[in-house]
Amino acid sequence: MENDIRPWGQYWVLEDAPTHKVKRIRVNPGGRLSYQYHHHRSEVWTIVEGVGRITLDGEVKDYTVGEVVQIPQGVKHRIQNASDTPCVFIEVQHGTYFGEDDIVRIEDDYNRK
């Protein structure tokens, strides 16, 4: 199982197929992913632990365990953990390409491009 540590937490690739990719993503307390969008994929996030503060095209809402977020291709999005316990979600990507180079970062706390 592929594992990648990031400044905000880490993720594990659970499945990587030609039609989809599935990740388990943990956001550390105070961590925040970049505000980003994708050209080649849509995503569905399901919160499985903690609370995720999710921004979709500028609108911010807190999501709790069992709640699902649909992120259409091209929609700007980010998740932040504003709590003091980890936030974990399952990300299902679907589209035509699932490489990490399909991340277009608009804003990033860690100065990544």
UniProtKB/TrEMBL annotation:
<feature type="domain" description="Mannose-6-phosphate isomerase type II C-terminal">
    <location>
        <begin position="5"/>
        <end position="108"/>
    </location>
</feature>
<dbReference type="GO" id="GO:0009298">
    <property type="term" value="P:GDP-mannose biosynthetic process"/>
</dbReference>
<dbReference type="GO" id="GO:0004475">
    <property type="term" value="F:mannose-1-phosphate guanylyltransferase (GTP) activity"/>
</dbReference>
<protein>
    <submittedName>
        <fullName>Cupin domain-containing protein</fullName>
    </submittedName>
</protein>
<dbReference type="InterPro" id="IPR001538">
    <property type="entry name" value="Man6P_isomerase-2_C"/>
</dbReference>
<dbReference type="GO" id="GO:0005976">
    <property type="term" value="P:polysaccharide metabolic process"/>
</dbReference>
<dbReference type="InterPro" id="IPR014710">
    <property type="entry name" value="RmlC-like_jellyroll"/>
</dbReference>
<dbReference type="InterPro" id="IPR011051">
    <property type="entry name" value="RmlC_Cupin_sf"/>
</dbReference>
<dbReference type="InterPro" id="IPR051161">
    <property type="entry name" value="Mannose-6P_isomerase_type2"/>
</dbReference>
<dbReference type="Pfam" id="PF01050">
    <property type="entry name" value="MannoseP_isomer"/>
</dbReference>
